[in-house]
Amino acid sequence: MFESLSSRLGSVFDRLKKRGALTESDVAEAMREIRVALLEADVALDVVKDFVGQVREKAVGSEVLRSVTPGQMVVKIVNDHLVEMLGSEGVELNTAAVPPVPYMMVGLQGSGKTTTTAKIALRLKDRDKKKVLMASLDVRRPAAQEQLRVLGEQTGIPTLPIVEGQMPVEIAKRAMQSAKLQGIDIVLLDTAGRLHVDEGLMAEIASVRDVTDPAEVLLVADSLTGQDAVNVAKQFNERIPLSGIVLTRIDGDGRGGAALSMRAVTGCPIKLLGTGEKLDALETFHPDRIASRILGMGDVVSLVEKAAETIEQEDAERLAAKMEKGSFDLEDLRDQLRQMRKMGGLEGMMGMLPGVNKMKQQLAQANVDEKLLMRQEAIICSMTPKERRNPKLINASRKRRIATGSGTAVPDVNRVLKQWKQMSVMMKKVKKLGRKGVMRAGLPGIMPRM
């Protein structure tokens, strides 16, 4: 997401940073390029006009033109206004109301509403430790209720039993009653969608809202539809006030204009981002972190949080113990490769690191395949447990066997072994330096010399 915008803005700011001093014409030229970049990213015209106008007003001020690093000052101003446009602060889901708390999911057909319902339910269950019930109110789309039931089985979250012939309002009432009897904390009501916003859709949603009084009315919008998603959000918000927006398929949207326009056009906060097809691919929307990603500053905080969510405590403690001993075998390397894949692979992790665009370009030129992690893991899995624990046993004939078993070539096996050796050198340095020594030396003190 935001790849094209980030690339365009990055080139503009690189030019500004190279200049020792900025004139008003320099700033004016940069503002023109920022305006074009935002429009090409599918940001709404009114939003672009306001944004560029506010940035220009501050960027031509004396504090910038007389600054020691004027280029950096312009970047800071753009960053601050991006954060403001995106909503200043992240807004979490309301879980503090008296249970059972109803959440109403609304949106057009095909926006990913039912899958998002299951994603939010799983998030509430795992992260917030809430007892959740899902109920499908979609009696129009064939197998919609069955789809939610299957998702419930996959996530281990109960769904309201299907009763043929019941209408949405009756289903909503039964869901709330059932939730009270079962001691449920939060009820997710997955309403029906249409191919477009119409009177029938709005009347049905209004009826469900009136009988349930939801703490959250969440619009699920497909970011790939660009300005259409913004228009849909505006229409829904005018008829049925929304409490938040969930943007789906942002992993497939390289422009990101919908996200940049939503808050400004509707005044409604974006609360969550759907980052992939898996049921755990859901992120909290943090305006400041998103702005940093757009400007190529990375999002290390989210990367650390993601690592904390996916790393098993026992595995972390086992690796820490091995680091203290200075030992590191191929089973440890395999675990690290799996960990990287859980965190979204090379591309997913790179998207949160500073200087991402330049790194991506370098990787593209080097033809680094995203499936590299899977191949490396396959190579290690083709080894015997004894070989994984003692890689020095692996001779030429064993390498041929491992390559055949993993569907790779001997040079690929050699690269994995080289990677293990480099990691082993790092671990030995960690042992030698000790914990305080590592803190003093930092990464340069332990990284292997290439």
- What are the low-pLDDT stretches, counting only 5+ consecutive residues below 50? 298-305, 352-356, 435-450
Q: Which CATH architecture of the largest domain is right?
A: 3-Layer(aba) Sandwich
Number of strands: 7
CATH superfamily of the largest domain: P-loop containing nucleotide triphosphate hydrolases
Count of structural domains: 3
Q: How much is the radius of gyration in Å?
A: 26 Å
Arrangement of strands in the largest sheet: 2-3-1-4-5-6-7
Number of helices: 21
CATH topology of the largest domain: Rossmann fold
Mean pLDDT over all positions = 78
- Which class do the helix and strand fractions yield? alpha/beta
Label the overall shape: flat
Helicity, in percent? Answer: 55-70%
What proportion strand?
5-15%
Task: Give the termini separation.
Answer: 33 Å
Q: CATH class of the largest domain, anyone?
A: Alpha Beta
* Topology pattern, helix = H, strand = E: HHHHHEHEHHEHEHEHEEHHHHHHHHHH
The description of the largest β-sheet is: 7 strands, mixed
Q: What's the helix and strand layout?
A:
Elements: H1 3-18, H2 24-40, H3 45-59, H4 62-65, H5 70-86, E1 101-106, H6 113-126, E2 132-136, H7 144-155, H8 168-182, E3 186-190, H9 199-212, E4 216-222, H10 227-239, E5 244-248, H11 257-266, E6 270-274, E7 282-284, H12 287-294, H13 300-310, H14 313-325, H15 330-342, H16 345-350, H17 356-365, H18 372-381, H19 385-389, H20 396-406, H21 410-446
Parallel strand pairs: 1-3, 1-4, 2-3, 4-5, 5-6
Antiparallel strand pairs: 6-7
Helix pairs in contact: 1-2, 1-5, 2-3, 3-5, 5-12, 6-7, 8-9, 10-11, 14-21, 15-18, 18-20, 20-21
